[in-house]
Specification:
Blueprint: E1 2-6, H1 10-21, E2 25-29, H2 33-41, E3 45-46, H3 50-56, E4 62-65, H4 71-83, E5 89-92, H5 98-109, E6 114-121, H6 126-129, E7 132-136, H7 139-144, H8 146-152, E8 160-164, H9 168-196, H10 204-211, H11 220-231, H12 247-257, H13 263-275, H14 281-294
Parallel strand pairs: 1-2, 1-4, 2-3, 4-5, 5-6, 7-8
Antiparallel strand pairs: 6-7
Helix pairs in contact: 9-12, 9-13, 10-11
Length: 301
């Protein structure tokens, strides 16, 4: 099968490697010449620009975008579409907001170009473990691309699936990431409680390894915790500043729109915001109020 891929970040590069290992022909392009040279070394066919990539593929073409959500992907969708013919397909494998998928698909449909939204999970481990793929779009087109999806997934019949119409793939991935926020926050809070119990002298790396086997809280995230604590038990080289990709925000907003309570996901998102504050005026005000009404002690600068 012939595939085109635009955006050779870590995930895009690893997806390319899996496709090549699976016997597919992959044409790639990226702004970074050194990345293109690296992909040439693993068997991909690098080209200089989008037009050359589309022209290098046989119709009906399939071009994957692995780019940051927002303007970068928006512009690239239209750039790729301008070089395509009716019957070709664009697959957005990034973290796009699902409503943007629906809008783009409507625009491309008028040109006879198909659009697939692919929620992709697996991170840097996808190369060896395979990717979890949540796919939205016309089933006929998804079936046409089945060999490519099967190659990326952990197995031909597991870890991937057509979940519904355009937009549904990224919607499911959005909720997936919201759940991920909550799980990560629960682990972080639990380990912080154990870390604070100094009189027990707990070895948190040991605890994480105990929980990896037989425990009801075992998971891949716990495996990653064990890895991190094994490398640096005190996490001394890591700042407690936690960013977010935006998908947690979208999940919370969707919960509000649907009148669905989602307190855990919401609190985990706000905890990330809190991590970015050197000083919290709100926390200062809480301390001042406690002092005012009850004479409780305050820490002063």
């Amino acid at each position: 099968m012939e595939l085109g891929l635009i955006g050779l970040g870590k995930m895009g590069g690893n997806m390319t490697r899996r496709w090549i290992q699976g016997g597919h022909r992959v044409v790639v392009t990226d702004l970074q010449a050194d990345v293109l040279e690296e992909m040439k070394g693993v068997g991909a066919e690098p080209v200089k620009d989008v037009a050359s990539l589309v022209q290098s593929l046989s119709a009906p073409r399939a071009v994957w975008l692995m780019l940051p959500s927002g303007d970068v992907t928006e512009k690239m969708v239209h750039t790729v579409a301008a070089a395509m013919s009716p019957g070709d397909v664009i697959i957005d494998g990034g973290n796009t907001f699902y409503k943007d998928d629906v809008r783009r698909a409507g625009i491309l449909k008028e040109k006879g170009i198909h659009y697939i939204d692919q929620g992709t999970s697996g991170g840097v481990w996808g190369l060896t473990e395979g990717y979890s793929l949540m796919i939205g779009g016309d089933k006929e087109i998804v079936d046409r691309l089945r060999p490519a999806f099967e190659t990326l997934a952990p197995g031909a019949e597991k870890g991937w699936g057509h979940v519904g119409p355009v937009g549904s793939g990224h919607f499911v991935k959005m909720v997936h990431n919201g759940i991920e926020y909550g799980m990560m926050q629960a682990y972080a809070e639990g380990f912080e409680i154990m870390n604070a119990k100094k009189e027990f002298g707990l070895d948190l790396h040991q605890v994480s390894e105990i929980w990896q086997h037989g425990s009801v809280v075992r998971s891949w995230l716990l495996d990653l915790i064990a890895n991190a604590l094994g490398d640096d038990p005190e996490l001394s080289n890591i700042e407690g500043y936690v960013t977010d990709s935006g998908e947690g925000r979208w999940t919370v907003a969707e919960a509000i729109d649907l009148d669905v309570p989602a307190p855990v996901i919401t609190e985990s998102l706000f905890a990330r915001f809190h991590s970015r504050q050197d000083t919290s005026f709100g926390a200062q005000l809480l301390s001042a109020m406690r002092n005012q009404f009850g004479g409780h002690a305050m820490k002063t600068k």
